[in-house]
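Many introductory courses stop at the sequence. We go one step further.
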Amino acid sequence: MEGYIHEGYYIMARKESWIDHQPPYTREIFRYFIRMATHADSKEGKIKRGQLLCTYSGIIEALSWYVGYRKMTYKKHQCENATKQLKKAAMIATKRTTRGMIVTVCNYGTYQTPQNYESHSHSPPPKAGTEPEQSRTINKKDKNVKNDKKKTYQQNSDEFRLASLLGSLILERKPDYQQVLKAQKNNYQKWAVHIDRMFRLDNREPVVVEKVIRWSQADTGNSSWGGWQNNILSTEKLREKFDVLELQMIPAKAAFKPAAQVLRETEAREATDG
């Protein structure tokens, strides 16, 4: 067949996410993992769908480039730092072997299934004269809040990922909290609703929300105050206290800067230090 590409393809979602605000080498290494992950279980069964066996030296060589005649490569510490950050963000999981490292791309099946990108809920255009324009404007926010409860969030979406991140951080400190989560059917789907409202209605950025979640679950307070980690036990409470958390998290000398700018500058310094 003319134009047929024998090497196949992989899919990258257009939606902006955490990875889009990471250093270039982290973005490229993550795309390398997706590109090299096997699309089906190996015949021996050792490498599953969404996994790859690799080494840091192999990654460095595969992602090399040239400036004139000079060969340029990423450094090993950059590969290690990218892998560490991707694991913290629940984008990948790794397992050491005698031959290198097995990398598992989390939610690979969701990312790489074309049907998941098809829309099945096209809304017909509004009929003329059915509702005054002013009324539609006034009630828009209320309708959005009511309708978002009907949404189903993909596991690779920022809404679901950040909801499950908060849950996993709570469980690290209090394993029996799992009973609370089980008591609420589709709990992370419900939690994702409040993350969605933070994005749409409060204009929060995913990268900022993630930083606030991690900070709140690391804040232990003092002898008379148990810290935010004992108070932020749901995304609903996270949304309610978000402004207070953000102000306490950001140093006073940087308070005049937009939160997203401060956090990105911090990440850039951490990446350089690493």
